[in-house]
Amino acid sequence: MTPNVIQHLITGGDDPFLPKLKNDINSANRIDITVSFIRQSGLSLILDALIDALERGVDIRILTGDYLCVTEPVALRHLLLLQESGADVRVFETHNGQSFHMKAYIFAFSSEQGKSGGHAYVGSSNISSSALKHGLEWNLRVALEENTARFDEICRKFEQIYTHSSTKRLSNQWIEVYQQRFENQPVVLFSGWEKEETTLPPEPNAIQQEALKALKHSREMGYRRGLVVMATGLGKTWLAAFDSLQLDSDKVLFVAHREEILSQAEYTFVCIRSKAKVAKFTGQDHQLDADMLFASIQTLGKQHHLNKFAPDHFDYIVVDEFHHASARTYRQLLNHFKPRFLLGLTATPERTDQADILSLCDDNLVYRRDMFDGINSGLLSPFNYYGIADQEVDYQSIPWRNGKFDPDQLQNKLATQARAKHALKRWVELKQVRTLAFCVSKKHADYMADYFQQQGYKAVSVHSDSSIRRNDALSKLENAEIDIIFSVDLFNEGIDLPLIDTVLLLRPTESKIIFLQQLGRGLRRHLLKDSLVVLDFIGNHLSFFRKPEALFNVGVSKRERSEFIRQIQSNTLKLPDGCYVNFDLQAIDFLAKLIATNIDTQEEIYRSLKASKDRRPTLAEFYNAGGEVQVIRQQYSQWLNFIVSEQDLSVEESECFSCYKDFFKEIEVTNLTKSYKIVLLEALLELDGFRQAIDIKDLSMHCFGIIQRRRALLDDLPDEFRAVDLLEGRAVNRWRSYWKSNPIKAWTGGNKATDQAFFKIDDERFQFIGDVPENEIDIFLALIGELIDYRYMQYEERLRKEPPVQSRPKADVIDINSVRKQRIPYFQDLKIACGFFKTSQHDEDSVHKVALPEHYGRLDSERHFIARATGNSMDGGKNPIKDGDFLLLEAITPDRAGSISHQIVAIERQDVSGDDQYLLRYVRKLGQGEYELIANNPDYKPMRATEDMRTFARFKGVIDSDDLTDA
């Protein structure tokens, strides 16, 4: 319908201009605006409406001026972002005392019947908060139908000034010059209220301040990459902007997978860094000089685009929402750039979702705060969650393909009167004042809005084809003019809705991230609400476990899901302060029946994880979800063989795996006494070393850089290299020699005659033995990367456990029956083999404190500990060690290793499955770097020490069991 054509005077005060302005922006198909100045406080009031208009294809032209330097540069930066999205923005340059005082807003409309109309406002309102909301302003509206001649005259005058020789197209360069004038020239204002219009950038909230400190500390520790996990609503994009300032970075790159995320990030960064030149990367060379560049991974990830930038072009890189793309997608980009710091961001709810992400950030989890942390800190609203039985829909009868319901059949099952009646009944029982409802499709949203309207409620449907605009609907909901908005996906993320107090979830959710984003729309704090009511419909399908997986961090195994159901039934769920959860009995019954026949095998864990992610999980994700990789190997020989059995490798991936399965298995099971073997493989990935031979000096130096970057690996280095982060002079040659005698030797088959060589050295160049076809190389590298990520995760988890004796307090002396004794730890599950290597899974929870008399010497619980011997290989000689003896041991650490020759030491290595093994032996040095391990019992032959063995403790003596006392 054509808008009202009656001529009208808007006077401000009780008759504000803003509602009329937004209404016309939401209805127009052409918008022309010219004002003498624009303040950020006013632009922010209409920005969402202008963005919505551009998204639906409206032509927008905006003209402002530099008169008296009143227009704010930060507003111009935001206008530049509008221009990037399709608007045409110009500025009028005033010279020689010329003034620029015009204020006109012109809107053209067309109805569905093809009739045209229009409104033109001419008056006193510039774009500022005061002018649009509460200031006394006079603006005369001229309607096209009421006075065509006058309307056309206003349009002609606008055209004349818009094409005037003094108008310039807005650009980064123009803003940069204007910014200097704005800051250095005293601003002459028209009235005192203008001083209150200045918009200051926001300050970090409490959680962001904690994260900033953690990021700073992480860099001080030497990390150059790190991951931050922050729940929706806690402001992770704002954090990135704050941290880029904290690092004092000149060039910032922000990478994401979707245009919407990039656009939202641009507006956020501009608010914080209003002086920086900003651009969205489309492949054009002129964008290369931007201070802040925002790029999609799909565009920038291509090698010919990466080649436009030097590796150190950006000193700060942000990669948002890693979880939306595989690690494979990002490796090329991360291998190319060498920033001062790279920040990975995600709101993903559980650590299995972070496995691939964390590996790309050097396994450096800098900071994590989930939704519950946000609620407990007072930054997010508490919630009352109701799990409602979706009793009107049989989800088992809806076809399920590729991790999703058939969309047409799902829509037909949900858009029914019985289901709408059930939803309305529960909504009326539990709702508060302002509700946002999420539906499965446009048809479903329209159906629900119509049904609620028929029952007498003020409801609207909002989607890309709806008559009401998103920002208009939100304004009406905020003013309580409507009760409920039914939407599909327009409100998933990026919209701040603090007044929403009820969320109605009427659809199954394939993505845990989307579920949390939808929930997060109502978690913003507001004075008018005490808590958020969440009405979530739970159906009889396994996919509905994704919601508790996301909200309550429930695992995918039968045991974890059963425990969750038990906690619901016993009301023992751990919740933030002020939160409440209630599941219908029938909803609990749905969930319980779904897992009643579910066998918790490794295959089932994998399949549940796959269903939860809508893709095949990586080995690292399976491992982090509690999957037992060793069991998989026992049954299927190797991980990728198992994936083949699940039919989850493509034809191309299967062919690649078939050709190189021995190499893939070696990566998966190779012994890792140190991290060196996988560091070398990662270096080859980053240096494109599977396509070409790499100079050993370049390779070894790059490996050193990886160890410096992955700070958890520094303890693997000998003392002479551990304290430095840059090798120079003779140290380069010493390092190259050291590296050549360790992982390079191992990968070329030099450690054992039985080792299979997968690489060779030719003219001091390290080369893969194999010629991977170009059409397979990307798949080949991706599979290697997946296995490397797992081995890093497995290895660094061992490091985090640390030898317990290093983390214990010094032994204190106590009196037991008037005898002074010293307390040290006894690890009941740590068996030191006196025979052949024996697997002994050490668990710190098994530690037990015991006391020893002082005649055993001065003991230190940071170094000394007790373990049991098993076997009889050391049962011989002058000091036999028998099966079952209690052994007093002293941990060997890099800073106090000393000589181990002619001593009995405990040696650690891994078996082919990656499990730890321990052995006790006498060490005899044979030559430079060569050692032999001798048993006391002559029945056991000497064995050579190999690179995969690590001495972790020195034998001090056998303890008389009568001397042991519980402490």
TrEMBL record:
The Helicase ATP-binding domain, residue ranges: 217-367
One Pfam family in the UniProt entry: Helicase_C
Keywords: ATP-binding, Helicase, Hydrolase, Nucleotide-binding
Domain Helicase C-terminal: residue ranges: 423-589
GO MF annotations in UniProt: ATP binding; ATP hydrolysis activity; DNA binding; helicase activity
Keyword ATP-binding tagged: yes
Keyword Electron transport tagged: no
Top-rank taxon, per record: Bacteria
Name of this chain's protein: DNA/RNA helicase
Source organism phylogeny: Bacteria, Pseudomonadati, Pseudomonadota, Gammaproteobacteria, Methylococcales
